[in-house]
Amino acid sequence: MRKPNRKRGGFTLIEVIAATVLLVITASGFMAMTATNVKLLVKENRMERSNYELSSRACSGQGEPAGETLTVIFNTDDGRSKDVEEIFEKYSVSEAWGDMENSMDFYRHGLR
């Protein structure tokens, strides 16, 4: 007759439950982190598309005047010719979606 083997390998029920609890806590942390990253990626993608749209609108001449002027003066050193001046008008395009707004300022060569 054999003696019962008290030294058999394996884990106790308490050890298995503790390991399972740790695994669930770790997995839920990774899942929460992944969900947050997905939200940030969606927001970043939306912002990037908005930047391309605003850039396209600015290049096509759309935009509202912002009421500001940038004047660039080119001085000549010889004193005989008149200084050259270029005027740039500031314009702004904006876009709102959901709880966010994106805007872009740009300058157009003004005529004076």
TrEMBL record:
Concerning Pfam families, the annotation shows:
N_methyl
- Any keyword Transmembrane? yes
Q: Which residues cross the membrane?
A: 12-33
Q: Which UniProt keywords apply?
A: Membrane, Transmembrane, Transmembrane helix
**From what superkingdom does this record's organism come?**
Bacteria
Keyword Transmembrane helix appears in the UniProt entry: yes
Q: Which InterPro entries match?
A: N_methyl_site
Q: What's the protein name? A: Prepilin-type N-terminal cleavage/methylation domain-containing protein
